[in-house]
Amino acid sequence: MRRLKIILVSLVVLLAAGLGFFFFVLPARVERAMNGVMNPPPYTASDRAKALHESLTIADLHADPLLWGRDLLARGTRGQVDIPRLSEGNVALQVFAVVSKSPRGQNIERTDGDTDNITLLAIGQRWPLSAIFSLKQRALYQAARLNDMAARSDGHFVVVRSKRDLRRFLERRKVEPGLVAGVLAIEGAHVLEGDPANVDVLFDAGFRMMSPSHFFDSEMGGSAHGVEKGGLTDKGREMVRRMEEKGMILDLAHASAAVIDDALAVSKRPVVISHTGVKGTCDNNRNLSDDQLRSLAAKGGLVGIGYWETAICGKDATAVARAIRHTAGVAGIDHVALGSDFDGAVTTPFDTTGLVQVTDALLASGLGDADTGKAMGGNAIRFLLENLPD
């Protein structure tokens, strides 16, 4: 009996240790491994770039930190973005995207949606039971977390839902430098769970941007990395119609070529591609062709250039600037923006405090102060002021 008790106690201790590791240690280790920074801060730049950078209104169209369970009001020791680091990097506005499903082995060539890595991560981070079993509830949970952070920030961080909200924030920031605004977005319309009517639910929760697909084909449309890579489905067209009625912005990041063509044909409002690269500087299946850039610009759209290697075929700010310059040369300077994909399971050359290096690289490439300001955030702010709901 004594030996049996020792065995049972040992098993209980091992189980408790294992559960403690799974719930309180492993999620942070996973994030640290997946969201790397090649060059840690502090970051250097020319005096000219520093001065210009401090004068700009900087905006980033895509980052995924809500997936990782951190309190973004606290300065992180892992990952690439949070509110204090946004403020230090002089970023006025960050689009916070929600990831709800991520298949095992996802890649830019062919990915099916039969598996999901997020379920274990959600369990490990102790998400509500409803968010374990429902993709829509995962999105709503992450939105609630961001809104809670705004409520606890003493006004330092606000979630923007309308043109009026954004105008009010920009006026405040003129006299209170360092304030940060967020916009909620959804990466992949599989969160609709097959029902376009759920656009209304997500809009009411504060989401203002959504893409039809992520790494795999959805019931709304094909992914550039999916199996079928088809166009917008009937449900997808209904989704676009409902989004436009609400004033939600259609994001074509990760969309198949057929979805991009269909969306540009049926949409009545400008669209974005929030985070991408361009084939003109980095030719692969993830990135946009010159023809796609021109079509998007003709629709009044906006392209966010990412910082990870698959997007830019490089490992520094110079590669980011090269992709921005190419996009501006093809689509026009008014149609390019930043779309970092920070904390999106990618390794980047710098965290968000290092954006001055992009400013520096753009200036070094010969771009003038005014056009640099457009690419670093001016275009994104203008686009949101024109296209967010009233």
Please, could you describe this protein's structure?
This is Membrane dipeptidase. There is one protein chain. The protein has helices spanning 2-24, 26-34, 47-55, 83-88, 118-124, 129-133, 135-151, 163-175, 198-204, 234-246, 257-266, 290-298, 309-312, 317-331, 356-364, 369-387, and strands at residues 58-63, 91-99, 157-159, 180-187, 207-210, 249-250, 272-276, 302-305, 336-338. With 390 residues, it is α/β, with parallel strands linked by helices. The protein folds into two domains: 1-33; 48-387, TIM Barrel, CATH 3.20.20. Helix 3 crosses helix 15. The longest helix is centred in the first third of the chain and has 23 residues, at 2-24.
Estimate what percentage of residues fall within beta strands. Answer: 5-15%
Number of helices: 16
Shape designation: globular
Number of domains: 2
CATH superfamily of the largest domain: Metal-dependent hydrolases
CATH topology type of the largest domain = TIM Barrel
State the helical fraction. Answer: 40-55%
Largest sheet: 6 strands, parallel
CATH architecture tag of the largest domain: Alpha-Beta Barrel
N-to-C series of helices and strands? HHHEHEHHHEHEHEHEHEHEHHEHH
The rounded Rg comes to 21 Å
Give the structural class: alpha/beta
User: What is the overall pLDDT average?
Assistant: 95
* CATH class placement of the largest domain: Alpha Beta
Count the beta strands: 9
List the uncertain runs. none
GO molecular function: dipeptidase activity
EC number: 3.4.13.-
Enzyme class: hydrolase
Keywords: Dipeptidase, Hydrolase, Protease
